[in-house]
Every structure is written in C-alpha cells, then in structure tokens.
Design a protein that fits this description.
Helices cover 46% and strands 17% of the residues. It has 16 helices and twelve strands.
Amino acid sequence: MMIKRKRVIFIFERNPKHLKSGGAIRSYEIFKEFKEIDNHNFFYIFRVYTFNFGGFLKFLVRNFNAFLKFINPFYKKDFLTSDFLEPCLIKFLSIFGRLLYLDYHDDPVLQIKYFNLNSTLNHELEEKLLRRVFLNLKAFKIIGVVSKEFKEFLEKNNPYNISKEYVIISNASSPQLINCSKLPPKLVITLISGAAPGRGIEDLIKAGTMIVKKVKDMQMILALNSFGGESSNYLNYLKSFYGKKYKWLNFKNVGFKEVPDLLSQSFVCVVPHKKNLYMDFSLPIKLFDYMAGGRPVIVTNCKATSKVVKKEKCGLVVEDNPNSFVEVIIYLWKNKKEAEKLGKNGRRAVERSYNWKNQSQKLLELVLKS
C-alpha cells in the first residue's frame, strides 16, 4: 500500500513588521492566502523571515515542529521565496526538497544602474549580485514576475541565459484598507517613492515651480523613503536644497499604514519615472495604491505603467519632462469632473483585478497544482 506523503511548504518572506519598501509589502501580501490552508490535512505552512543559511538554521532550532517535518523523509518539502536566497542555503535546501517558486520582482543590478546609484556598484559587488541572481534563477522551478513586459524581456533578452517558467504575479493594492474618498478642494500633488535620481523626482519638483505660478495655493507632497547609502544621501540633498527653497514642497516619511490618509489629502498622484529599460517593465505598487484611493494618476510613457493607465482609463500618460507634467496637472485641475471619473475608474480596476487577494490566490493555485 502506497502512503501519500504530506506536504510541507516553507515560505521565505520579509518580516511584516517592516513594511516601508515595495519589496517588503509585496512579500507580505502575495503569501497572505496561504494562511487559509495552514490546517489542511496535507499542508503545513512555515513562514521564515530570513534568506541566509545561518538564519534558517536558527529558525529550525527555535521551531521544533518545523525541524521535525524538515528532516522527516515522509514529508514532501517545497520552498517558496520572496527574495534571493544565499548560495549556500540554496544548496542545503535542494538536498531536502524542491525549490519551487522565486518571486523575481526586482533585479538588483538593473535597479542600481537605472536608478543612477552606480557609485554603490563596484565590480566586486556587481559580480556578487549577478552570481546570486543567476544561482536563484537556475535553482527554482517557477519564477514570478510583476509584468508582461518583464516576462517578455526575460524570455527574449535574458541577461542570465536561463530558460524558465515565468508567471505574472502583478503588484497590486488593498482596497479594503485604502478608502476611495472625494477629491479635495485644494490642488495637492503627491508622489510616493524611494529616493533615487532615476525616479524623476526632480522633474516633478521643477514642474511644481511652474504650476505654483498658476495655482498659488498648490502643495506638493513627496513621501520618499531611502534604502540606505547613496539613496539616503540623495534624500538629504533633496530636503536641504529644495525643501528650504520652496514653501509649497513638503517631505514626508510615510509607512504602509499612513498611505490611506496621505491619499485622502491628494488631488492627483504621479509616477514620474524616467523612461528606460528597467522602468519599462517596472509596475510599482504606488500606482495601484493611487488607483485604490480613487486618485487620477499621471505616469510617464514607460511601457508597463502606461499600458495599465490606458487600459483602465484611470489617468494620463506623458513624456518624462517637467513641461509635460505641468500641462496635464493643470488640465486635470481645470477639469475636475474628468479627474473624478479617472479616479473612479482606477478604483474599480483595483476592486476587480489589481488587488492583493487576487494575486495571492493566483499564486496559491499555481503552487497547489505543482
């Protein structure tokens, strides 16, 4: 008589206590639906907040139930991760089970290059990052990406020369947490972003210098988070140079829980990314948060973001320069009914498709079939 092996799933994810970066939020959200099968007869879910060998061993020592199932050959073990694992951990896990799913939501080398943070990327670090990405892509069976454009890029121009099964698990938002409120009577322009030169932040500030001449009480909110090193230096530069110069410019440090309140204060929200290879396949969480809040969005003509905005009719697409931002922001301010319509379209799209519950359920179904 053949005994059916029970299945153990180990999920490597970011700690939900630290939800400021897009990667951490995505890591927390895409595995939410897996909690629903924790008590299933054939499934045991263990959530591991570490991506290195030493951290995983500490997890096993502290979690005796996980340790027993990990070493028991009668359990079928699958490993899912929201970020790249260290090479030695990959080798270790492959002995005990199947490396099933890697969430490839960002490429660290391309991100640094196209964010113009090259001073942090010396040759040694670049080689280390490239090797880690290569080993992870090679080891895992299924690779999750954020957009069709990223999937097509990897299938046609894969810099790592690895053929894999790529699936689209889009970024999204939480409509149950972000309310759709009326647009405010004041022109408040909002950007939520990481601090980096390649994100178009200064183009938006320059647009603000022209808009304030036409709308005297205009306000601009830059909710910028730094991720250390050169990013912190850039944020400090923005605050010291522009923050002291313009009274209409407000810098805020906003966490995941403060986003709904920030959006309720905003009339229009912007994704001012500079058009390039990396930004063409990037599909940031902030876009869907803007849409969930019922705000009209303005995005530059990067492929993935502009495609969503055009399809859902939730905003306007512009060239990546200050004059273009000025033109469309003033247009929406003068045409408030159209701005409201665009915002409502975005909200409906999030409720229908671009919500984390849908994306997490899609990933769960994929794992259960594999």
